[in-house]
Amino acid sequence: MTGLVAAERGLGEIALVDALPEVVVVAFAAVTHLADPWFLFGLLAIGYWFADDRFAAAPRRAGATAIAAVTCAYAATALGKAWFAVPRPAGAVGPADVPAWLPGLLSAWYEAQVLSDGFGFPSGHATGGAAAYLALALVYDRAWTARKRLLAAVGVAVAVAASRVVIEVHYLVDVLAGLAVGGGVVLGALWLAGDPRIRRSGSGGAEDGSATDGGGSEPYAATAALDPTLSFLLAAVVSVGALAVAVESGHTGEVVEAGIGIATGAGGAIGWRLVDGDEPAVPVRVAVPALAVTGGLWVGAYALSGTLAVTLAATTAAVIAVVALPALPDRLERLSAGRN
User: Per the UniProt record, which residue ranges are transmembrane (predicted)?
Assistant: First the structure.
């Protein structure tokens, strides 16, 4: 909404990062990859497919809920960018100031990192990074300790947020808003999914499925209660709102992003209906060809972003395949047994 977030919203941070050594800026340009959408969804898919009960009592439910939470975060980002429609810092438009000591291939990579189009508030990388790493820390509740998981999640999320300011594609306020939105969305998505650690009873104790260890401090089976369906559907609904705002305002790029959000939320909800939630880890022999197929669909969805219907269809199919994959080995075995 015009006026609520100013186009010139810098607080002097651009002058500060201009004074940083080039090697520091290059390093932060690499750090920003930790919240690229392809990286985050790849990481989430790996956890969803391969995690076992050393990480969570119900690793498939945990992994699907993390995917749903991050999908909600990206939907909120799409809505925010279309709603506020404020530009990025001038340096994001170019030309890029590429360090002369970088070799040719890295020069092209660096230039691609420090140039960015689209709107700037909130930061999608900060939002997605905060959501993804916080969700992973919360749902995989048997890895390390709660404190170590949360410290790691906060550390990575803050590093990614800082990187967006250092490479001058966002202002400080953009990434702070992104961190806040990402964290809030995760808690909301987990609440919708039925996380008993968030849905506390009136007496202050946890509800079903949140038995603790001997010290009473760590949820032992909280993920057994998770159902990400409503969280996936929330992402689709918020993306519909983002689509309506983008269409009304004539923001073509945000129309595509909102469409992908609708497809991801709907595809996730459909895919989860095909899964029981207690399947074992996906065998590598199944995961490798599935990765090739889903990866091809994702690439096709973005490559054909000019054709919204094709993008929606490819994205929906890819997400259904990713989420439903744990059920595939058992179905194949049943089919094989039936033929024999």
Answer: 23-50, 62-84, 119-138, 150-167, 173-193, 230-249, 255-275, 282-302, 308-328
Cα–Cα distance for residue pair 245/242, rounded to 1 Å = 5
* Proportion of the chain above pLDDT 90, given as a percent: 71
Q: How many CB atoms lie within 10 A of CB 272?
A: 25
Q: Crossing angle, helix 59-84 and helix 37-50, to 10 degrees?
A: 160
The tokens describing 16, both together, are: 């500060």
Is the pTM of the predicted complex or chain greater than 0.85? Answer: yes
From 332, 294, 215, select the one nearest 49 (Cα to Cα). 294
Q: How far is CA 282 from CA 51, 322, 335, 336, in A?
A: 9, 11, 17, 18
Q: What is the pLDDT of residues 106-137, one digit of tens each?
A: 999 999 999 998 999 999 999 999 999 999 99
Q: Which residue in 26, 82, 122, 140 sits closest to 259, CA to CA?
A: 82
SS3 state of residue 291? helix
